[in-house]
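job 3f2a | input accepted
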Amino acid sequence: MGLVTPGIGLVFWTTLAFLIVLFLLGKFAWKPILSSIKEREDSIEGSLKAAENAQKEMQALQSKNEELIFEARKERDLLLKDAKETSDKMISDAKSKSKLEGDKMIVHAREEIANEKAAALSEIKEMVSSFSIEIAEKLLRDKLATDGSQKALVSRYIDDLKLN
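job 3f2a | predicted structure (164 res):
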């Protein structure tokens, strides 16, 4: 059982070796290891803060992006509404203008028709009067072809004048 129970010398030398290693580690290795661990911890903490800041910035950018999209949609809707109103107004103006032009053309055509009708009636009257004169002239020539008929007509006109 000598192996299971250690001797005092073994405990002493083991403790002494442990303390020397502990001292050497504390003197030369412990501070660089702790400073390295501290630097690593600071680096990780800085990275976490940077990640949090980046996440906050991303959320702010996403919120701003959503606002910009909302504003762009509002502006697009407003532009579409204005364009629709403008096109409706242009169509309405064109319709009213064409109606006015059509009405003017109808009035002008009616005036032209009335003028042509009046000219045609005037021409017909002239033709009728011309025909009437020609017919009367032919009748008078036929009736007054002889001297006796001329004398009878003159005496009848004289008698008519005395009566009046």
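job 3f2a | The two ends are 191 Å apart (CA to CA).
job 3f2a | closed
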